[in-house]
User: What shape does this take?
Amino acid sequence: MHLIPTIAIAGLGGTIAALVHAPIPWLLGSLVLTAVVTGLGVRLQQPSSSVENWMRVLVGTALGPSVANSLGSFGAPTVLSVIASIASILVLVFTGSWFFKRYLNMTRGEAFLCSLPGGLSFMMALASDARVATEGSRPRIALVHTVRVVSLVLFVSLIAFILGTEKPQESFADWFIDGLVLDWRLLLIFLTALVSGFIANYLSIAGGHVTIPMLISSMVYLTGLIDIQLPQIVITLAMLTFGCIIGCELGNGPLNEYPRLASGSIVYTAAAFLLGALFAQLFGKVTGYGFLTLFLALAPGGIAEVSLIALSLGLNVGLIALVHLCRFMFIMLAGPVGLRVIGGASRAKNQRSDS
Assistant: This one.
């Protein structure tokens, strides 16, 4: 019951954005309105982590057919895209860690987590495991990543409009009835999402609620058992959920630190976008992929958020999700190592100070 006002406000924001034909309306509209309402002091109940995780499971499942197609055509262009993504990570982490520590007075752990181009939940899981960030770090890290996601949505929408690559506008009803069919294969898709969701909950791997369903559903699609996709309303609900979650995070940010953190995040995000654009332009000529597709594949953000943007714009979601999956696996392996080095250096510095 406590979620009803939040859902109503998010739905109203998405509806207004859809009616005025705004880009990525259900994500952007719900995000903006919940952020404004929360920022004005209205207390909204944010969807629980369980609801968020199941929305991530549905997004991962929806990515299955696109990833299956990309796996079937995996070749040198995809490998080059993955190499470009990992190279961009290394540049962003080294420059970002220095920037956030130097200009925003963050600890080394906070700066490292803010510079990693991954989803917020994964960053917080890394922070908890390595114990390099305090509870007070969450709103600061959340704000930096939230500003980054908002900037990504706005920037990509603008570029899509300029390049004329926006997906044709759907009618208002299409967002709710498209893909709704009485077919046993649809039941199989939801069963796949349910099973993969329980597996993700059991394994409790950071980011697993997107990656595990994505991999399992792609394997199911590769078998040929099903060849239809999740209804559009599922994607719409996921967008509304992520929109109100990001909006609440943004509206509940540390107001006294907001101008400094937001401006710093915008500067860093602009630099990250410029780097991504340069890599997309360079590798686009070699791989043959479109600029916007390759830019989103290299964009700083979580798999779920970036994939939802790609789905809305009708881009090559399979390639984008596949590159982000490889990047996620790299961060999952290299991230804890970097945090352990930072944690060890901090403890050694404290011991020297005590002595």
Observations:
- The chain has one domain: 4-354.
- The mean pLDDT is 77.
- The radius of gyration is 20 Å.
